[in-house]
Amino acid sequence: MHEVGMIQNILEAAVVRAKEEGAQHIRVVQMRVGEASGVMPDSLEFAFDVAKKGTIAEDAKLQVEKVPVICYCSNCNIEFLPTSELNECPECHQAYCEVRQGKEFELAFLEVS
Ligand SMILES: [Zn+2]
Predict the structure, then answer these.
(1) What tens digit of pLDDT does each residue of 89-106 get?
(2) Neighbours of 74 (CB within 10 A)
(3) How far is ligand 1, taken at its centre, from the CA of residue 55, in Å?
(4) Residue-range definition of the domain harbouring residue 59
(5) What residues are neighbours of ligand 1 (ion), with CB under 5 Å?
């Protein structure tokens, strides 16, 4: 369950940021999670509930903004939405094109009080 460790890092950063703003509680943690980040939304919810215990984010809600995968083909100089895990270019059918977007796992927004 590597999601717990990943979300702990996010939460620690969130707590630092909230304290810098003089906040007592974190109400909402919004994250940007890429569809190619390898993180399942369900396990993320669970990991968040585990990681937030005993922190100022204990009552916080998790909101997840999904980021779609965008690939780039250097042969065709185009960006495209991959239709399979092969990331195959729709024009020249080269597989495993560069992933330009969709691996995000980051803090997007914090609501504190
Ligand atoms: Zn191509």
Answers:
(1) 999 999 999 999 999 999
(2) 10
(3) 48
(4) 2-112
(5) 73, 75-76, 89, 91-92
Q: Which of 57, 54, 53, 65 is nearest to 25 (CA)?
A: 57
User: Could you give the number of structural domains in the chain?
Assistant: 1
Distance CA 37, CA 47 (A): 15
Give the C-alpha separation, 25 to 61, whole Å.
Answer: 11
Q: Which two tokens stand for residue 67?
A: 């980021």
Q: What pLDDT, in 10s, does the model give residues 17-65? A: 999 999 999 999 999 999 999 898 888 999 999 999 999 999 999 999 9
Cα of 81 from ligand 1 centre, angstroms: 12
CATH number for the domain spanning 12: value is 3.30.2320.80
Calculate ∠ Cα 60-66-68, nearest 5°.
165
Q: Taking the chain, what is the end-to-end CA distance rounded to the nearest angstrom?
A: 31
